[in-house]
């Protein structure tokens, strides 16, 4: 699956957004079924995400719901990573597992 200008692989986006410390960890979590895109289960790290997509991540005993707002070019500092998503949990409180 090739990336287009308006999309990025899910594993890369999760890494760039600093949801996981490495792409390898992101791949493991995706393949284990711990990530959903637009409320659909996703077990393929190469799934393309675009701005406006909703990514739900189950990890470390918590569930995070994020809306993709930008794709990013690299894994930058936390302040840069926070610009890649809108935390939907901040609106209604976090969900514990």
Automatic annotation (TrEMBL):
CDD domains: S4. SUPFAM superfamilies: Alpha-L RNA-binding motif (SSF55174). It holds the Pfam family S4. InterPro entries: S4_RNA-bd, S4_RNA-bd_sf. Residues 8-72 form the RNA-binding S4 domain. Transmembrane segments: none annotated. This is RNA-binding S4 domain-containing protein. It comes from Paracoccus aerius.
């Amino acid at each position: 699956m090739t990336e287009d200008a308006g999309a990025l692989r899910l594993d890369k986006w999760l890494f760039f957004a600093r949801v996981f410390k490495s792409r390898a960890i992101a791949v493991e979590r995706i393949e284990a079924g711990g990530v959903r895109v637009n409320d659909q289960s996703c077990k393929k790290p190469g799934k393309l995400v675009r701005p406006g997509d909703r990514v739900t991540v189950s990890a470390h005993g918590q569930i995070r719901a994020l809306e993709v707002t930008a794709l990013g070019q690299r894994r930058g500092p936390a302040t840069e990573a926070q610009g890649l998503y809108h935390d939907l949990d901040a609106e209604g409180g976090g969900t514990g597992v």
